[in-house]
Amino acid sequence: MRQLPKWFYNENQQVGTDYTDIKEVQLYDQRMERIRDIEKEVEDVKDAVNPRPNHSILEIGTGTGELAIALSEHCGRVYAVDTSLTMLEAARKKAQIRKRTNIEFLCGGFLSYQHQGRPLDAVISQLALHHLPDFWKLLALKSIYSLLQPGGILYLRDVVFPSIANYYSYFSELIEEMRVSAGEIIAAEFETHIREEFSTLDWIMEGLLQSAGFKIKNTANESSFLACYVCEK
Ligand SMILES: C[S@@+](CC[C@H](N)C(=O)[O-])C[C@H]1O[C@@H](n2cnc3c(N)ncnc32)[C@H](O)[C@@H]1O
Questions:
Q1: Probe target for ligand 1 pocket from 33, 36, 60, 84, with the most ligand atoms within 8 Å of CB
Q2: Which domains, from first to last, does the chain contain?
């Protein structure tokens, strides 16, 4: 295990929602099903990374493992990494029930994960990089770049804010829409997200990806605050 310097960011601290809380983890899938189309997400990732039986894929911030488990049916090995042992335990149990045996669930984070196998064909991360402040996002992206083989793909999907004139009206309208369409808990979680987590601006995220060495092949905006980047090493 690498010794981290004293100035290093502690990525085990929980910012915003506490994903080490068993109650949060138990309700996670149920909440996500209400606001996400997980099957479509899996198809989008498959289209972008084109998984093959000889491929090794890493997912960082795997959460309850839904995507890692789906991808494991199409590639040789999946490394599913998360800082929360509670999340990893839920993901491991789900993989066992679905009889998936080619996934390694590993406790680690964007900054601390040390890859042991051969260079990766793809790295995927959904709704997790915003847990790091911007400077640390850059270090995380540089680390991901170093783990990929040349031509390898980074699929990054996260909450990223648009560059607009008035954030007060933008956020209050967005939160009101969420309250109506998804309910009070999701709206309150989004308020916590804005206040305590580290979602950045679209132009900063693009700059960070490019500074880390990536070529952005495709950018898609699913909504005004959800961006997806398909990048190549
Ligand atoms: C919103 S959940 C997303 C989970 C899953 N990717 C999904 O799409 O449903 C965020 C996840 O990122 C994890 N996480 C937070 N900080 C992290 C870090 N520095 N490195 C890796 N994972 C992290 C949390 O424990 C949590 O499981």
A1: 84
A2: 22-161+198-232 (3.40.50.150)
